[in-house]
Amino acid sequence: MNGKIAEVLNSANVQRIDIAYAAGTNMPRHIATSDAYLVIEQGSALLIYADTKQELDPGIVTLIPANEQHMLKVIDDLKGYILLTKEATIKYFSFEPIEVKPNGKSTY
Predict the structure, then answer these.
(1) Long-range contacts made by residues 9-16, C-beta under 8 angstroms, separation at least 24?
(2) Is 96 within the bounds of a domain?
(3) Which among 38, 33, 58, 35 is positioned nearest to 48, based on CA atoms?
(4) Enclosing domain of residue 76
């Protein structure tokens, strides 16, 4: 993951996680264990689900349903934040193929 993600608020009911990613990077495929609101403050990205894509630009607020696998493909340097319930976690998945070379070393 070539970006920055930091929890900046953890109140009685809500946590806010700031995100910042450079153009050309991705937030890997993941789920949140609660509904999440993604707020874009700067830049642009594609929010990619299994069967749909949504363009995200500054001022966009998007509801991402709990346990819905998705990823972000960053087009322009991106800054924003995610609002989740206090108990929620983000779980990342790795679907990258593993190539095993003759020397026994693996690459991702």
Answers:
(1) 10/86, 11/86, 12/86, 13/85, 13/86, 14/83, 14/84, 14/85, 14/86, 15/83, 15/84, 15/85, 15/86, 15/88, 16/81, 16/82, 16/83
(2) no
(3) 38
(4) 3-90
47 domain-assigned: yes
Cα–Cα distance list, 55 to 45, 62, 76 (Å): 6, 10, 12
User: What string of pLDDT tens digits covers the 108 residues of the chain?
Assistant: 456 555 555 667 889 999 999 999 999 999 999 999 999 999 999 999 999 999 999 999 999 999 999 999 999 999 999 999 999 999 988 755 444 445 444 343
